[in-house]
Amino acid sequence: MKKIVSGIKPTGSLTLGNYLGAIKQFVKLQEERKEDEFYLFIADLHAITTRQTPHELRNRTLDIAAMYIASGLDKDRTTMFIQSEVLQHAELGYILQSNVYMGELERMTQYKDKVAKGEESIASSLFTYPALMAADILLYDADYVPVGDDQKQHLELTRDIANRFNHYYNDFFTVPEPIIPEVGARIMDLQDPYKKMSKSSDNPKGYITMFDEENMIKKKIRSAKTDSLGVIKYDPINQTGLANLLNIYASATDTNVEEIVLKYKVSNYKTFKEDLGQVLVDLLIPIQERYQDLIKSDSLQEILNQGRDRASDYAFKKMRKCKRKVGLGRK
């Protein structure tokens, strides 16, 4: 049995991109790896590297938990919990700061991009958060971590930290390997297909949230940017917007782009968009209904309580050994 650990940061409303790129892939991974054990946490500590409105952060944290379950997560095989409720994450994060170097942290894209833009008042936690991210993974002896293209750098640093710690204190941490999703890893903005779909977009037509109503979903797909060529083919360079819609269709239906292009070879953009809109409605509305049943239920709280207790039990034992390794404590 292998252990797979994943986390999702509760910043902004969940979008279709979050669902196709992360939630759906995690559920699919569970279906494929039936013998493995899964840990899934909502990374609220990572969210506060930038200022958050407290009640909104709490609501988004519960939204994510409920949406994963509504999307088909196997709660019996998953230890799902809220990161800040397991104190050892922050504790190990601090210890790992002593095993990562300033130069390594300075090369991390998220921090480097903010510095390059000349942003002021960057929180120190944004600089050191890769150590906390490493703790999130190493605390549970993860064998694998599902990562998208924009997360590979963080996992590489986690591996470096684990190897460095193991060198100084003998083998202690499992060095994790990445799992890269085959499709759906990067869903782009509907109005600006050169940037990733995000709730922070200036144009609300650029993203579909997991809470959009049927008419809104269809309307946003109808208004999605394509081109004037009018030919349905997969050309990410010359038909970037259409390529994004084809990727969305493929990810939503678990088919490949070539099949979709063949299906609509003699069709037009209007028909294609109408069909894609209906595909997304058929996909998202049932999830929304299950989410509504869960979000205010006792069962959601029970799942999170059980996850917290299981994760805390494992993390406490790991940290007790870790502190002994580095010489902390009286004995």
How would you portray this structure in words?
This protein has 2 domains: 3-185 and 298-326, HUPs (Rossmann fold, 3-Layer(aba) Sandwich), CATH 3.40.50.620; 204-292, Tyrosyl-Transfer RNA Synthetase (Orthogonal Bundle). It has helices at 16-32, 44-47, 54-70, 88-97, 102-106, 109-116, 124-138, 152-169, 214-222, 240-253, 257-263, 269-295, 298-326, and strands at residues 3-8, 37-42, 78-82, 144-146, 177-179. 54% of the residues lie in helices and 7% in strands. The chain is mainly alpha-helical and 331 residues long. Helix 4 crosses helix 7, helix 7 packs across helix 8 (152-169) and helix 10 packs across helix 12 (269-295). The protein has a 3-stranded parallel β-sheet. The chain has a two-stranded parallel ribbon with strand order 4-5. The mean pLDDT is 92. The protein has 13 helices and 5 strands.
Condensed summary:
It contains 13 helices and five strands.
Which range best describes the helical content: under 10%, 10-25%, 25-40%, 40-55%, 55-70% or over 70%?
A: 40-55%
Which structural category fits the helices and strands? mainly alpha
Q: Can you tell me the number of structural domains?
A: 2
Number of strands: 5
Q: Architecture of the largest domain, CATH level 2?
A: 3-Layer(aba) Sandwich
Estimate the mean pLDDT confidence.
Answer: 92
State the separation between the terminal residues, measured CA to CA.
33 Å
Q: CATH superfamily of the largest domain, called what? A: HUPs
- In percent terms, what proportion of residues is strand? 5-15%
- Radius of gyration over C-alpha positions, nearest whole angstrom: 21 Å
